[in-house]
Amino acid sequence: MELDKKSIEAKIKEEIAKTLKDIQNLEEQVKPISPENAIGRISRMDAINNKSVAEASLRQAKDKLSKLENARSKIDDPDFGICVKCKQSIPLGRIMLMPHSNKCVNCA
Ligand SMILES: [Zn+2]
């Protein structure tokens, strides 16, 4: 089956733009919480909790971005859309849903 590379590429670009925006937002949220910020002990705990959640999301977003960049650079490779594990072709629906994945549903 011939993959529709134009739509896949557009999708990857769209995902990259979205992920970059997420990273920007998350970087705002992981800024150090200043102690002189008179927000009280409980809300300070909340702020610290939110910050660690944001830090985890930020790591994920950066990971996703590098996978997307990788997928974009490989879109013209003959093995693009082939699962790296089982060597079966990944269904287009999955590529469009998760363009950063290089594994099929079974191997992911
Ligand atoms: Zn597979």
Automatic annotation (TrEMBL):
Stored InterPro entries: Znf_DskA_TraR
Every Zinc finger DksA/TraR C4-type domain range: 79-108
Keyword Zinc tagged: yes
Record lineage: Bacteria, Pseudomonadati, Bacteroidota, Cytophagia, Cytophagales
Protein name: TraR/DksA C4-type zinc finger protein
Keyword Zinc-finger: yes
Residues in dksA C4-type zinc fingers: 83-107
Keyword list, A-Z: Coiled coil, Metal-binding, Zinc, Zinc-finger
Coiled coil: 9-71
Pfam family of the protein (one): zf-dskA_traR
